[in-house]
Design brief:
Bound molecules: adenosine-5'-triphosphate, magnesium ion
Number of domains: 3
Number of helices: 7
CATH architecture of the largest domain: 3-Layer(aba) Sandwich
CATH class of the largest domain: Alpha Beta
Radius of gyration: 23 Å
CATH topology of the largest domain: Rossmann fold
Helix content: 10-25%
Number of strands: 23
Order of helices and strands: EEEEEEEEEHEHEEEHHEHEHEHEEEEEEE
């Protein structure tokens, strides 16, 4: 399609309304320009006269407080204006967080620590983004901890991560991610190793809280924590555990009254629990779409998003790989060494001999260089993906963001997550 044949349409939005659209068709691109008024995308302001591009898979809501005119070029699969939006309630919650920050400033205490919870597909990650963007627009520097190993917004699937947010997210590239703190879990769901999940949450909470202590600006800005949509049974328990470790002040519950009431019952009374509606714009994603979203994030890690990256591919000798996985098969209680608990096997480092079984698997490169280091609670430096295994030559081929060689002494952690490199 040439530029001239792309349809352009203007949408006039009233106060407190939003333009929602979705792009599902393959290889499709839509651009949006703010012509008049002011508007924002999940808390990031649009610059007037600038065309923003959106691609296949995008689900977007451009909200305006005071009214605006938007020009949309290209074909969307769904597009409509909605006046039914929970944005004002979200803004009020931001204002409450801001009040807590002001109080923390006066009293030289830690700013608000907020946990965002809810079932799958209710807009949890989006609400985190809105809170973080609003805070950054007020010159706050909140910490963002994403403890969703399945559909997290930082790092690659299977990890939990945190970053310091110093400016609003770019509309095209998201939050700037220099020096994230990343811990390896290695699975799509916390349930696949809940002992390890608990351990890394505890570590992340400790680091998050202590790292804030020394700097007043950081201390008062607080922490926003994104969680996964697993809210029943053990999933609910893991939310309670996170709330306790992070010593949260407030829990925002999206959409589910049952979860809200359970939390009201189970968290200490000093923790505020707030029930919020989900936006009608959030649509449920199928299992396939969730898988595609995970693949997309790994692809982006290696190949970049809007700004392309050029990863390297090279061979590594089996003998040069210090590869481990976390979690050994369970032993019957009677066979355990004295003092060892049955769940301890889940947090044990087990050496893995490279073999065709690791083909397509992601591997985390730990900053840890020795088993004496607390490997499980050490930050992850980056990731490689196994794209070939040659048992005859005893080498694996890896996709890596850095050129060869792999850092020689660092411990490698095998992940359950796989990625088919189709480039
Ligand atoms: N108001 C809205 N209008 C249209 N789309 C929206 C709106 N809010 C969020 N979305 C889109 O809905 C999708 C799901 O939202 P989000 O990822 O925040 O949900 P979630 O609860 O975090 O999901 P998960 O359980 O997978 O973590 C995203 O693609 C997001 O861009
Ligand atoms: Mg999410």
């Amino acid at each position: 399609m040439t530029e001239e044949t792309i349809t352009a349409k203007e949408y006039k939005l009233d106060v407190e309304s939003e333009l929602r659209f979705e792009i599902e068709t393959k290889d499709c691109k839509v651009s949006v320009e703010l012509k008049l008024g002011s508007a924002e995308l999940f808390g990031t302001e649009l610059v007037k006269g600038k065309a923003y591009e959106f691609h296949t898979g995008a689900k977007v809501a451009i909200f305006t407080y005071r009214g605006c005119t938007l020009e949309v070029r290209g074909e969307t699969d769904v597009i409509y204006i909605s006046r039914e939006t929970p944005m004002i309630q979200y803004l009020n919650c931001h204002a409450a967080l801001e009040q807590m920050r002001e109080k923390a400033e006066e009293e030289d205490t830690l700013g608000p620590i907020a946990l965002i919870v809810g079932p799958t597909d209710v807009g949890k990650s989006t609400l985190c983004k809105i809170f973080l963007n609003y805070a950054a627009r007020m010159n706050r520097r909140p910490l963002y901890c994403d403890i969703d190993v399945g559909q997290g917004t930082l790092s690659v699937p299977g990890m939990i991560a945190s970053i310091l947010v110093e400016r609003p997210a770019s509309l095209t590239e998201g939050f700037s991610q220099s020096a994230p703190l990343v811990y390896h879990h290695g699975h799509r769901s916390p349930s696949e190793n809940s002992a390890l999940y608990k351990m890394i949450i505890k570590k992340m909470a400790e680091v998050a809280i202590t790292s804030r202590e020394s700097n007043k600006g950081l201390k008062t800005s607080g922490i926003i924590i994104n969680t996964c949509g697993w809210v029943k049974g053990a999933g609910y328990k893991s939310l309670l555990h996170a709330a306790e470790e992070f010593q949260v002040d407030v829990i925002f519950v999206l959409d589910q009254e049952r979860l809200y009431n359970e939390l009201l019952r189970d968290v200490p009374s000093k923790v505020k629990v707030v029930l919020l509606p989900k936006s009608g714009g959030v649509v449920e994603r199928s299992k396939t779409q969730r898988g595609e979203a995970r693949d997309g994030r790994i692809r982006e890690y290696f190949y970049g998003g809007r700004s392309p990256l050029y990863p390297f591919s090279f061979d590594v000798k089996w003998a040069d790989m210090r590869l481990y996985k976390i979690g050994a098969p369970a032993l019957p209680a009677s066979c355990l060494p004295i003092g060892m608990k049955p769940e301890d096997h889940l947090t044990k480092l087990v050496p893995v001999a490279p073999s065709p079984a690791i083909l397509h698997h992601l591997i985390s490169i730990s900053f840890a260089e020795s088993l004496e280091d607390d490997v499980l609670c050490t930050n992850i430096m980056g990731f490689i993906c196994v794209t070939g295994v040659d048992p005859e030559r005893q080498v694996v081929t890896v996709l890596s963001p850095q050129p060869r060689p792999l850092p020689p002494n660092n411990i490698l952690l095998l992940s359950d997550i796989q990625f088919m490199d189709s480039h």
